[in-house]
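Backbone-to-sequence.
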């Protein structure tokens, strides 16, 4: 398959996945703008809709200021509003749209996120992506409290041809991390994904466990982990902001993966997160299939979220 066919396939999945967001946003814009001049009351109502779409107060205000700057004395069409919206969203997203680059071997990736965010599935999909590129991958079942997470990683290992390291449920996660990094070095593994527990109910316990995992793996590899990815579920909307804050403090997050964009009308939360935290967004997921997780590109996302063509 050539690149343009792949790109078109991804655009179809992305725009389809963001349909609930773009439809919700598009219908609000159309209802407000059609047959109306850009009066202050219309602009205020539009700002409220943009905030409701989880884009964040700051960006909503900037977009409305842009529209109200006197450039549209004859009024404006919904499509023109969407184009301005897409441009402003792209300005926020362009600085954070960064690939996950493997800078060393083994490249150790600690993967964090609350239970139910799609964390273990995301690890499997990333393993599949790197295996297709011909890289050797090791998956580490560091969420030792959940037997289901351990079993899930083993299935992904079989499916992708990645090596899996796991212990019995309840085993010490830090000890497993130590052994896993040791094994990855010895075997010349190129990329290693380490799953982690996602319980936020007891943050002190979670923080202690993650700190211990990092401490012991650094005895083997002083620069590990080389990336700390936080997996976020788009359907939780504003709660995702607090998760970025909490896990940033607990785990030292270096980059984000946003999943389940296909199940929500709240895709705008990714824009609010980018605006507030400025963390790299490496991948986004718009479905259950292995190809429904792909590198994040600012322009494609910006246009898909407002319902414009690529």
């Amino acid at each position: 398959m050539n690149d343009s066919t792949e790109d078109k396939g991804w655009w179809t999945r992305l725009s389809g996945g963001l349909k609930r967001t773009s439809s919700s946003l598009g219908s609000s814009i159309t209802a407000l703008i059609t047959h109306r001049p850009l009066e202050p009351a219309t602009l205020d109502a539009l700002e409220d809709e943009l905030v409701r779409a989880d884009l964040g107060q700051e960006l909503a205000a900037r977009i409305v200021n842009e529209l109200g700057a006197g450039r549209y004395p004859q009024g404006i069409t919904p499509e023109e509003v969407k184009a301005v919206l897409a441009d402003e969203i792209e300005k926020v997203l362009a600085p954070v749209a960064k690939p996950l680059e493997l800078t060393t071997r083994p490249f150790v990736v600690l993967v964090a996120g609350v239970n139910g965010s799609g964390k273990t599935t995301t690890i499997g999909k990333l393993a599949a992506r790197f295996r297709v590129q011909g890289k050797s991958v090791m998956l580490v079942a560091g969420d030792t409290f959940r037997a289901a997470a351990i079993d899930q990683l083993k299935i992904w290992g079989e499916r992708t041809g990645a090596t899996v390291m796991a212990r019995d449920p309840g085993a010490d996660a830090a000890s497993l991390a130590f052994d896993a990094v040791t094994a990855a070095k010895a075997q010349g593994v190129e990329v290693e994904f380490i799953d982690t527990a996602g319980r936020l109910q007891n943050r002190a316990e979670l923080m202690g466990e993650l700190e211990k995992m990092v401490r012991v793996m650094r005895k083997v590899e002083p620069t590990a982990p080389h990336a700390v990815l936080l997996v976020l579920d788009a359907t939780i909307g504003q709660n995702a902001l607090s998760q970025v804050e909490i896990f940033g403090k607990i785990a030292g997050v270096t980059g984000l993966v946003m999943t389940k964009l296909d199940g929500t009308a709240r895709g705008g939360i990714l824009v609010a997160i980018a605006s507030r935290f400025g963390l790299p967004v490496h991948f986004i997921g718009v479905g259950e299939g292995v190809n429904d997780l792909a590198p994040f590109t600012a322009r494609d996302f910006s246009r898909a979220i407002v319902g414009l063509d690529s």
